[in-house]
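[09:14] KT: can someone run the structure on this one? pasting the chain below
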Amino acid sequence: MTVHMRPYVKDGIELDQICVEGIRLEGFHGLYQAERETGQLFFADVVVHVNTRTAGANDDLTRSVNYSAVADAVADVLGGEPINLIEAVAERIARVVLSLENVECVDVTVHKPQAPLHVEFKDVTVTIRRDQREGSLWADKRIGSSAGESDDPLDPGAGPVNDGMDERPGQPRGAVVALGGNLGEVEQTFQAALNDLHRIPGVRVVAVSPLVRSVPEGGLAQPDYLNGVARLETALSPRELLGALMGVELAHGRERSVPNAARTLDLDLIQYDGVTGETEDLVLPHPRAHLRRFVLEPWAALEPSARLEPHGAVADLVRQAGFDAATRVGDGWAQPAGASAVPTTP
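[09:31] RB: done, structure tokens below
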């Protein structure tokens, strides 16, 4: 019987599913002494939720999840140290699978078909879902966490990590996001990315800028970039919005393995109205935006009176920016599907 699990959506993107079904081992889990002494068969079905788009496009296992590693991790728990409850067996399986690279969510079903019941039965099962961002132990995982550090969700002693970047606004706030790309059909990618952002609960694309063309910084041998700016309205916290942007980048083939490499899509959080500060994973406003004409010029065209604090009026910063190889090439994109109105600058 094929295992089917409800979809898991991360940052507005429905993730793909990799299923390893019917993993079977003898284990010694249970409350009763006889179970601990004689053992019995346990089965597990595991569904891993992961974005496989880049792996599929590039035939690259490192961008997906190795199902052999999943099976081995599950087998180590099923056949390992005795545990009283199959609920705890499922929890431990979820924890070890979530520690594998690229896993965002996992569904675990543990079967105990030889459970010591006093009636005829077919099976006893427990099914749980655990992910990297929601629910019990994993609620406090955030961008920038790493194994062994204080905010590692797989460390049972880890406490919540809360700062100003985690605070959701009482009312939706404005935010400015810069878009860039120099691989593939960039304008189409921008449009698709804006549509994806607009579909994320708590995010609304309000307006988009003209496009500009710019040469790569540092004289790198790459195609020219297209750049633009979008004005958002969001009920997400700054860090949640950053996570949403990174999720949309990933969905559109963004690779981060090589610094300053050519890219299909770059989404930078430039400004989140009313929030300033610096943390390990997020600095607001963007620390280099005031130097980047390919950000400032489309922003000034979209919002002539805009200000980038503490540097001042964006229109003035355009003239001061040291990097000035930006040429206007377009007047913006069509509004995202479902948007009430997304004006463009004529």
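[09:33] KT: thanks! Residues 165-330 form a domain with the Alpha-Beta Plaits fold (CATH 3.30.70.560).
[09:34] RB: yep, looked fine to me
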